[in-house]
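Crash report, auto-generated. Payload:
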Amino acid sequence: MDIKLTTGRTLHILEEESLLQALKRHGIYLVASCGGKGICSKCRVRLLEGKSKIASTGKLEPREIKTGITLACQTFPEEDIFIDIPKESKLVVGEKIAISKSTDLIELLHSLEAEISPIVKRITLNLPPPTIHDNISDLERLKRSLEERDLIGIRFSHGLVSSISKVLREAEWKITLRYTDSHDAISISPAGMDGDRYGLAVDIGTTTVVIYLVNLTDGRLIDVGSTYNSQMRYGDDVITRIIYATESGGLDELRDSVVSDINDLLAPLIERHSISRKDIESVVITGNTTMTHIFWGLNPAHIREEPYIPTINFFPRWNAGTAKLKINPLSPIYTVPCVASYVGGDIAAGVLSSKLHRSPEIALFIDIGTNGEIVIGNNEWLMAAACSAGPCFEGSGIKHGMRATEGAIESIKIDPETFEPVFNVIGNGQPMGICGSGMIDAISEMFLTGIIDQKGKFIREVKTGRIRNGVDGPEFLIFSRDGRDIVLTEVDIENILRAKAAIYAGVSLLLKEVGFGLDAIERVYIAGGFGNYLNVDRAIILGMLPDLPKDKFSFLGNASITGAYLCLLSKELRKEAGIIASKMTYLELSVSKRFMDEYISALFLPHTHMRLFPTVKKLLSK
Amino acid sequence: MDIKLTTGRTLHILEEESLLQALKRHGIYLVASCGGKGICSKCRVRLLEGKSKIASTGKLEPREIKTGITLACQTFPEEDIFIDIPKESKLVVGEKIAISKSTDLIELLHSLEAEISPIVKRITLNLPPPTIHDNISDLERLKRSLEERDLIGIRFSHGLVSSISKVLREAEWKITLRYTDSHDAISISPAGMDGDRYGLAVDIGTTTVVIYLVNLTDGRLIDVGSTYNSQMRYGDDVITRIIYATESGGLDELRDSVVSDINDLLAPLIERHSISRKDIESVVITGNTTMTHIFWGLNPAHIREEPYIPTINFFPRWNAGTAKLKINPLSPIYTVPCVASYVGGDIAAGVLSSKLHRSPEIALFIDIGTNGEIVIGNNEWLMAAACSAGPCFEGSGIKHGMRATEGAIESIKIDPETFEPVFNVIGNGQPMGICGSGMIDAISEMFLTGIIDQKGKFIREVKTGRIRNGVDGPEFLIFSRDGRDIVLTEVDIENILRAKAAIYAGVSLLLKEVGFGLDAIERVYIAGGFGNYLNVDRAIILGMLPDLPKDKFSFLGNASITGAYLCLLSKELRKEAGIIASKMTYLELSVSKRFMDEYISALFLPHTHMRLFPTVKKLLSK
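Recovered output after restart:
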C-alpha cells in the first residue's frame, strides 16, 4: 500500500506498520514524545483519503477527529491513503540555538588562568635517512629520534605502524608526529604539510546536540553546529531511551543516530572553513550519564534500575575510530567524567565553567534541561542531586507544549480585569504552541490574576469564557484561530507544578543535607536550555526557584558545552573536571522519604509554606 | 570453458586465465616455486583432451611434451579440456613434521632456570555488590577492588568495558580478571568458570607453519600442528612473496593466507582437547622479518631494497583481534623481535633456545631453512648475517628437487666401481624426487667417486651410462621407471654449490669479522628443516659446514618454535629474547666485496683452499 502526501511524495507502507513507523522509515520524523505509544498525542496527521484502522484516538478532540486528524502511531492504513502532515507535528532539526561568543570563551579560559595545553601535542623531527651502516628499522629510527628529544615510551598502534614506512619515505624523513599527553602516537605526516590544529567540543543533550569547532592553537571558536538529538524519534527523555536501548538492536540504533548527528553537524563546518578531517586532533564529549553511555555503545540498562549504577563514570581515553566519528580514527576523545547515574559529565563540565568550585562562596548550580540537576558547594565541597523534573519545559507531556523554536508562545501577560492574554511568539508568526518560558509566565500570571488557586486548579467563579472543559478536563484557552486552539489544561498545570516542585525540593533537600539555610547561598547559577530567556521573577512566583534577590542569579546558558570547550584546551582544566566529578557527593533522591516530603510541600503555588517566598507573599497581598 | 579432472571434478575457467590460476581459484594448489612464471617447471599437468594455447614449455623434455605434459602456468585452454594432475605436482599440505617432546621442552625451560610467568595473569575478585549508598560505577568498583590488591593502572579497552556490566551481574560480583603484564585487561569472567590457561607458540616459516598449544600453568606441550605455509602458492622464497605483497591486494592476500593456516591448524587442536578459544590467553609469534611483517599486514617492500630496512623490529604488544586470530580478540601477541631485514625473530628465538647467549664458549649457530642465517657469539657479544642460500635444499630450483616428504630420496650411496646408486626413499615407496639431504649425499658421493670434479662438473671419462645429456645439459640419472626419470643435472649441482658456498662464506666472513679462526669455535648448533637428518660428514665433504670435529655439532631442529615456546612461558626469557635481538650486530653481506671473495672461493668442492678441509683432503687421498 502507498501513502500519498500533500507535498506530492508517495511512500510505501508495509503490512502491520503504523503510519508513524512508515514515515520514520522514509526519513520523515514526527514529534513522538511518548515513543509511539498513543499517549502524547503529538504525531497528528490529517487523513484526506483512504481507509485506515485506528487503534486509538488518544486525547484527540471529537472536533479534531471530525476533520480527519489521527495519531500516526495509532493509524494502520487498509488501502492507499492521502494525508497532510501539519507543521507542528514535524520534528524540526538543524535549528540554531543561542551560542557563546568566541571572545567570551577565550576570556573565560584566561580568567581560569589556564595555559593552552590540548590533549594532542606535536613534534617535528628530522630523521637521518637509513644507510647500509645505520640500518635500524623505521620505527626504531623514529623512536631513537624521539628519545634524543626526551620523548620515551610513545606507543604506536598497529594502524599507525602500517603507514609509517610510506610516510617516512614520502616525507624524505622530515616528519611531524602527533601524540597524546598519555603518550599514544596518533599520526605521522610530512613536516610542513601538517595543517592547523583543531578540536571538537561536543555536548550531547537529551534534546539537543551542540558542537564547537575550536582552534587549538589560540582557543578561537571557529564555528558552531547544533541540532536536535535524533534519538528523539525514540522518546523524549532518558528513560524512554534506556528502555529502547535494551530492546534488540536498540542500543546500536540510538548510538548510530547520535553519532550521525555529530558527523552531520561537522561536515558543513569543515567544508565552510576548508579544514581537513585529519587536522581535528582531539574531541571532548560531555553529556548526561545515559547519553554518554549510549554514545560509547554501553548498555545503560542498570542506570534505570535500583541501585542505579552506571557502567562507568571515568572513561578511558578512547578514540574517534571506536566512536565512529569521521575524523582521524586515532584522535583521542576525552569524555568529561560523570558523577552518578543521573548526574553526568554535563554537570561536571557546567560546574567547571561556572568556576564555583574555585570560590569559597557557597553557590547553587541548577541545570534545567530535559532533566533537572542541582549542585551546591564551593571550593571545598560539592554535593549534587538530580530531580526527575521531566522534559515538560521542553514541551513534552504538555498538550500544546513545544520547544522554544519558531511559533512558540514564549511570554504571556494576562489582563487582571478581562483575563485576556497577550503574548509574544518566537518569529512573530502564527502561534503553534507554548514553550517553557511561556508556560512559567502563563501559570504565574494565572495565579496572580486569580484564575488558578494555590493548587493550580481553575477557580470556576472567574468570569471568563476562556476557562472551559476539553477532552482532558478543564483548560484555559490562550489562542484560537481556524479551528486550531492553544490551551493550557489543568493536567498541563499539574505536570508543570510537578516539575517545578521536583526542582525546588531538590534545592531544599540539598540545603538541608549540608545544614545550610537559603541565606547561606551567595550565588545561583542557572544553566540549561532556558538560557537567558528565563524570567527569574516569574520562576520565583511559580516556586521553581528559591526566593532570593535577583542579583544573586547568573545565567550560564549551555554550561556543559562551555566546560567541554575548556577541557579541549587545557590539561589543568581536564584535571579539574576530574576532581569536580570525583569530589562531588551524589544524593540519590528517588529513594528518599525526605525528598518526597519536600516535593509534596512544593506542589503548591509557590509553596505550602508561604514564608519561604516573602516576595511572592508581598506581591499577592497587593 | 570447463576443466575436467580425472578425479571426476569439473571446474570453470575464465577467459585469459591460466590453468594454474583456475586451479588455484578452485582451491587446487600446484607446486609453483617460481610463482607461475614458467621457470621452475614444477606445475606439470597432463593434457588428455582438448585444445590449449601453450605460451611456453619451460624446461620440459620433448619426451614429456609428447605424452601431453604441460606447465599449468603456461597453459591457456581454448576449449573444454580434460586433464590429469600427477601427484608430484600437487602442493602437499597438513603434513606432520618432526616435533619436540613435551618433556624435553619442560626440561629446557628448567635448565634455563626460568620461572613460569606467562604474559597474562589472573586475579579473582569478590566485589561488594552495589547499594544505594555504595553506588560507584561498575568499572570504578572493579578498579577499587584491584587497588586494594595493589593493582593500579590496569587499562580497560572499549570492547571489554562494553561487556562488564553484564558479566559482573551474571557472576554475582565474583569474577576472574585476566590482564597482561603490561597492565591491559583482556577478559572478565565469572570466578570458577575460568578454564585452564593456554598459550599458542607459532613459528611462521617461509615454507612451514608450526603451532604449539601449551598449558601455561605447567608448561606442558598439549599438542602440535604443522602445515606448509599457504603463501607458497605465490612463490617459494621471501623475495617472490615481497614482490607479490607489493602488488595491489597482494599483501592482504598473503596475510590472510598465513592467518588462515594458523586458524586452520588451531581448530582441530582445540576440538581434540575440548579447549575454549577464550582460554587461549596469549600468543608468541616468531618468523623471519618478512614473514613477521606479512603476518602483521605491514608492507615488506623496503626489506628488499637497499639499504634493506624493515618497518619494525621490536613489535608492540598487539592483539589477536588485530591479527585476526580466532581466539579472545584481546589476547596479547608477543612477537619475538627481529634483528634486521634478513635476520628475524626466528633467529633470536633460535639463539635463545640454544642457550649460546648464556655461555662464555664461542659458538656458531646455523639455521638452514628456506634461507640461511648464521650467528656467532657467546654471552658477551653476538654477530649475525644472512646468506642468500635460497630454498634449493627444500627442492626449489632443482629439477627433481622436493621437500623431505613421502617419496623423497633422502640418502644415496654410489658404488665407486659401478657408479650405480642405492638410495632410501621416505615412506619406502616409489621415489618422486630428491630432497635436501639426498642432494648433499648425492653430490658428496659423486665427488668422492670421481663422477664430478671440484667444480661440480661431470667428468666425461667416467664409464657409466648414467651420465647423459638432457634438455638442461649434462645430468646424472639416479632413477628411471615408466618414463619417469629422476636426475641431478649439472645446473642443479651448480645451484647446490651456490647455496653451500653462501653458507660457508657467511660463516667464514663472520669469523674474520670478529677476528677468530675456526679453532675458536667450541660448538656448532644446526637449526632448521634438516633437523637430525643432516649427515654432518657429507655436509663437510660438500664444504657446506666447516671441517670441525663431529662432536662439536648439535642439532636443534626447529629452534625457532622452541624459542617461541620459551617466550610463551617466561617473562625473563621474553626479556632475554629482546636482549639477544638488540645486542646482535647485523652484518649485511649482500653489499660486501669480501663476502663475494669468500663466496667464490667456496664454490668448489669442498673449497678452493683444501687446507681448510683437512678431513676431506685425507678422505680423497685414500
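Post-recovery validation: The longest strand of chain B covers residues 473-481.
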